[in-house]
Design brief:
- By secondary structure, the chain is α+β, with helices and mostly antiparallel strands.
- A hairpin with a 2-residue loop joins strand 31 and strand 32.
- The chain has five domains: about 180 residues, Rossmann fold (3-Layer(aba) Sandwich), CATH 3.40.50; about 80 residues, Translation factors (Elongation Factor Tu (Ef-tu), domain 3), CATH 2.40.30; about 70 residues, Elongation Factor G (Translational Gtpase), domain 3 (Alpha-Beta Plaits), CATH 3.30.70.870; about 110 residues, Alpha-Beta Plaits, CATH 3.30.70.240; about 110 residues, Elongation factor 4, C-terminal domain (Alpha-Beta Plaits).
- About 25% of the residues lie in helices and about 35% in strands.
Amino acid sequence: MDQEKIRNFCIIAHIDHGKSTLADRLLQITETISEREMQEQVLDDMELEREKGVTIKASAVRMEHIADDGDWYEINLIDTPGHVDFAYEVSRALQSCEGAVLVVDATQGIEAQTLANLYLAIEADLEIVPVVNKIDLPAAMPADVAQEIQSLIGVPVEEVIAISAKTGANVHEVLEAVVRRIPSPSGDINAPLRALIFDSHYDSYKGVIAYVRVVDGIIGDRDWIKIMSNSVTVEPIEIGVFKPGMVPVKQLAAGEVGYIATGLKTVRECRVGDTITLAENASKEPLPGYRAAKPMVFAGFYPAEGEDYQILKEALEKLQLNDAALVYEPETSNALNFGFRCGFLGLFHMEIVQERLEREYALDIVATAPSVRYEVLHAHTGEIELIESPADLPDPSQIEEIREPWMDVHIFTPSDYYGVVMDLAINRRGELTGQEYPTSGRVILRFDLPLAEIVVDFYDKLKSATRGYASMDYEFGGYRPSDLVKLDILVNKQPVDALAMIVHSEDAYHRGQKMVTALRKLIPRQMFEVPIQAAVGNKVISRANVKALRKDVLAKCYGGDITRKRKLLEKQKKGKKRMKMIGNVEVPQEAFMAVLQLKED
């Protein structure tokens, strides 16, 4: 294949601005998919993606297009997610392309993730093709949005393509712009093979399937390959391209995007970001990989049935292959036995991973309340320790200070909601660091906010308060010392480590009170009274009792001597006391989820 006739591009946009719908139209116009096979969001092949209407995984597809000048082109498209939690997927997809189609909603304008993804594309030195979508809607303002794009990236208004991905209006122009404006790949076809793994998934028949962008050289279907980071050599089962299903081919050359079915059975041998070369005539230098994703939110995942522990371990291993941003390590809990401490990019990422484990691997999972990673400075040694679980927090006498992660948050909102957004952020210990007005009627507010305050329901509250018009983007800003304490929850005088949390000292009493009230309704009544307590250190700050179930032992006593009744009541009291000493209270899954709803009021 002539490299001059290859174009590699991705579609980037804010969530719900129409990336997947545009990809559908491009597949139809290039006749990559027949009308009979066509369905909505054809590249979102995961059941969860269809249900939630969002792209979770970047997916690749090869199209063939005859341009207006009569030339034939091979176009490789990578559809990317728009949600802030999957920005890592976007950054990897960008490394495989020479250009990006930037899609902006004609009714919403430029939003938080539009900017965040645009900056990633500019950083990767890609050619940008701006597109205004949804011009068929009555509220569309294509001219105003095109003006916004011009002031943002300096592309003349005439070069901004106005389309409707839903009706297909002007979509042909997007293909022509891709061919004209995006440069062809610049790899050396005669150099030793270097192919970058930008994604992968596990297939029970073909092992690890690596999605690759061939940068230099050629790979044939009979060539033995070597993974450069660990020198593992293997003969691939097949190599091929996405159309959008996997279609085997004889060879992949420099500039092309495809897959290699490696046959490897373990995840560790074939990592995303690795370089594949040939076993003979191997390349000396690997390609620069990706910056590892930093998990921001941590939670414990435990199997509801103890014997499912091994299945959960294997499921996490396979899922990590498909989702390089997921990290996990084994952990034990007094309340929940053996499980894993998992790290996620955000709460939506955690929700997706949990649902995938439950659906794809038929697991019943108990998830603990999410927490963030803290830095603890030890008083005597001066060492800094990273704490991912509140249960790991050392004794208060050994702590000099606790530092929590703060985020640099950008909130895009119509000016009418300025006050509402300010209130919401300042109530969460936010500090306003700047503001600007990109266009009339819209404002960008910059805040420093603790991650612990964002992680649970900040985004939902922001959307509710602004009727869905506001959007946000955040990046890690650094650790700062804070007045933090560990809040323990005791059920029947036993601490439940999975319910412990690290909170700001001013917030501890209210948090404890809310938690105790919530648990009192959720913990089932026993044959004995169950005390539920919230404590900071040795000090109990809130308590409630779950009343005992009582049998009416006086039912058969009517009239007669009062001492007989007293004797029966005394006997019942002693029995309950003995029960309480040896009784166990099971904490239901709803109790762990109650922690998430603490800020509802």
